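*** Query protein ***
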Amino acid sequence: MGGICYHVINRGNGREKVFRVAEDYEAFVSLLGEAAERVRVRVLAYCLMPNHFHLVLWPRADGDLSRFMQWLLTAQVRRYHRHHRGSGHVWQGRFKAFPIAQDEHLLTVLRYVERNALRAGLVDRAESWAWSSIHWWRQRRGGPAFLEEGPVDRGGRWVREVNRPMTAAEEESLRRSVNRGTPWGAASWQQRVAAKLGLESSLHPLGRPRKPGPKTRRNLKK
């Protein structure tokens, strides 16, 4: 659906490395820019890791997200097979996308995405990872032209915010969103967006419904 921000994820098939050398990362970033020109989806953040990627995208119209990702991944797979002389699946399947409320929840997702390499122990500072949008935040020159600020102000200390550790509650809430495919935001927003996108089942607790206890059964008989 257009007008909503999304956290988009995909992993290498069998969790294998997809970005093997610097040229693989560079090519993906270049294709991101080309995809943004073709479909006009706004790219707010990205982080490319050896066997997966995170994107934060803000499509303008319904269907733009799917068109953007289809073109991006098809072009990337073709390039990957051409350069590494391979065939078969590169990614584990269709990408996953999770709607995000355009408030402090979006800022938390942006932080989570841009600090991914730091969290994985690949760098000592988030901005030191060359394949994350935070790498370009300070300089604003020489970076990808397709990057956009987004609907929520990140403030003047964004690099510091990204490097600040996330709380256990923030990470757990984000993991639940990723694992369940749940829209991420306040409860009322979640329910409204889930209804629009047909994601109501993602809001239900996992597992079978609890069997009624003796008191409940007696009440049901009345």
